[in-house]
Amino acid sequence: MSMLQTPESRYRVASWLMWVTPALWSVNYIVARSAPGIIEPHTLALGRWALAGLILAFFARSELWRERRSTLQHGWRYLALGTLGMLICGAWVYEGAQTTSAMNIALIYSASPVLIALGAVLWLGERFSWRQGLGVLIAMAGVFHVVVKGQWLSLSQVQWVAGDGWIVMAMVSWAGFALLQKKWPTPLGSTARLAAICMGGVVVLLPFSIWEYWQADRPAWSLQATVLVVAAGLLPGIGAYWAYGFSQKVLGASRVAASLYLGPLYGGLAAWLVLGEAMGWHHLMGAALILPGIYMASRR
To answer: Residue 244: CA atoms inside 13 Å, Cβ hemisphere, count?
Structure first.
């Protein structure tokens, strides 16, 4: 696009997308909470990324064909990224959403920049200050506060929710997905690279979806299932992942990770306005720990 031809224009667009990306991802929380009883988790993830991959591959078809040898040579990388970004951060989020709230998903996911900051130190050679270390501890305390519903002194009475565990694993996976994209250079642009990752995700998701299809108690396909697949594929699929990948390439991993500060705000508002979820004190206290902790951990 002509508006992205100069470094200045790319910088402006990337800076603007930092504000939009968390809003696009919040749509996925609504989809995840609406899916139980309508469509199975791996089937939803497969439909989402197959649709996104087809659209992206169409727009990047010339580049993908030109770089086909390099892409096939590093095919295992795209399978790994597809596993992290589409299987674990896709189907596992839908799995977790069957038993946890959209607000919990948003709050737990918001701690991923802390792990990205740690990974940037271990893998990318970035420096790590005592302030960042303190931020890691504070943010992780906030995540734990949300998971135990604020009942630190009576953990034996906490009703543990399996969904929170699925989301914690997805949050860790997202950090790995973001760091590996930065660590593994590629000649592909943002659109072509995401299309290749979608292909890897589809390959990984396909056997799980086939297994779900043969389950006797699976829900029948419906118009609602189609709407969820299309919504997930276009907004948090193409929109959010492309915007995140483009912004990270222009602005850098640690700075774009800071955009996830807005995740709890957007996700909480979406859960309240669309799903009617009530916000508890443990959510507010968790956010009060997570957001400052992320800020401290992600600062240079």
So the answer is: 28
